[in-house]
Amino acid sequence: MLLACGVDPNRSAFFCESSARHHADLLWALSCITPVAWLSDSKQKKKKSTNDTLGTFSYRVQRTASVLMYNPQHMVIGDGQGDFIKFVGDMAEGLNAICRTNAFVRPAVYRAPYFGVYNVMDMQKTGVMMDPRSPNKRSVIYLNDSEKDVKEKVVRAVSDSVGKVRSQRITAA
Q: For residues 9 and 122, what is the distance between their CA atoms, to the nearest angstrom?
């Protein structure tokens, strides 16, 4: 599917992250140095309930390990991800200090001038980001949806706050 979206296999590496042992090793190292307060203060954590599991906290560290593994100089980010990029940089500097190395780089935020990074909004609810876990399958376009399904979802998409599908015939003057 990624190839169908235009990802160039000559410039990109494809592998199953869970089979790359170095990801788990870096996740463990980061988990050992991450203050719990850093995890409980995150915006993602504040949205969760008081019955959170370890996964709620460790997911942020896992994402950080996935980023730092490849030492990116820049990261293209969307709205609302500023605290995550700061977290990644803080973790890189913390690991460098403990290991007395400069192996990990604090990535800089990159916003390309020719395209924006936008939130993809829900097809049925205005003001809500699209979530592939949504119980309403009409609110999400999946990569493996058929052409017919995509067209149907787009035609039925809510495009304003009224929440109704309307059409208007425009005639030439």
A: 30
Number of domains in the chain: 2
Cα 9–chain centre separation? 21
Tokens 């870096």 appear where?
A: 26
User: Do 31 and 61 share a domain, yes or no?
Assistant: yes
Residue 154 counted as domain residue: yes
DSSP class per residue in 114-145: T----PPBPSSSTT-B--TT-S-GGG---TT-
Tokens 């190395």, residue located:
101
Structural domain that includes position 144: 121-163
* Domain co-membership, 101 together with 152: no
DSSP-assigned letter for residue 18: G
pLDDT by 10s per residue, the chain, length 173: 667 667 788 887 777 877 888 888 999 999 998 888 888 766 555 555 566 778 777 888 998 998 998 888 888 776 667 788 889 999 999 889 998 999 999 998 876 555 555 567 788 887 788 888 888 888 888 878 898 998 888 888 877 555 555 556 656 65
